[in-house]
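Weekly sync, protein design subgroup
Attendees: M.S., D.O., the rotation student, P.L. (late)

Item 1: inverse folding check
M.S. brought a backbone from last month's batch and wanted to see whether the design step gives back something sensible before we order anything. D.O. pointed out we never logged the input encoding, so this time it goes straight into the notes. Structure tokens as presented (148 positions):
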């Protein structure tokens, strides 16, 4: 068995293991949340193993990485890390302060909700930009010109 990407393998195992551990910790309090975490961990593990162990999965992952990089550069230029991770920079201090003082927890959770909506908006923008890139590449291929 050939492993195509050790980075994908380890990241998939760590994420799935972390979600499984969190699910085990929360199962007695909220079984529905734990089952959702187990399902997400199984999905990530299956997708990660598919990308790591099969040639088709590897080519799909490479294509997604290429499209992501192209979309980041075209949409946001050199500021793409700020756009992607900037939404988490606002609630993070409040969530860290909530470990020290519980009064900060509610503010941090509200800001985390707004950060989730911001991230959802960025994902929608990325999805539309990827569709435009795919459409442009399809037209370019049909015309017989080389891709950029």
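Designed sequence read out in the meeting:
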């Amino acid at each position: 068995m050939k492993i195509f990407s050790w980075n994908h393998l380890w990241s998939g195992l760590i994420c799935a293991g972390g979600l499984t551990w969190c699910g085990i910790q929360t199962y007695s309090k909220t079984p529905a949340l734990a089952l959702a975490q187990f399902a997400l961990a199984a999905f990530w593990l299956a997708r990660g193993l598919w990308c790591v162990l099969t040639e088709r999965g590897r080519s799909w992952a490479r294509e997604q990485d290429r499209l992501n990089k192209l979309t980041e550069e075209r949409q946001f230029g050199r500021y793409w890390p700020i756009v992607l991770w900037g939404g988490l920079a606002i609630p993070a201090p409040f969530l860290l302060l909530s470990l020290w003082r519980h009064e900060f927890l509610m503010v941090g959770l509200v800001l985390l909700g707004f950060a989730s909506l911001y991230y959802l908006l960025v994902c929608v923008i990325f999805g539309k930009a990827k569709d435009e890139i795919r459409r442009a590449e399809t037209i370019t291929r049909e015309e017989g010109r080389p891709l950029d």
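Discussion: The helical segments are 6-26, 31-53, 55-76, 80-89, 91-97, 104-143. The mean pLDDT is 86.
Action: P.L. to compare against the previous round before Friday.
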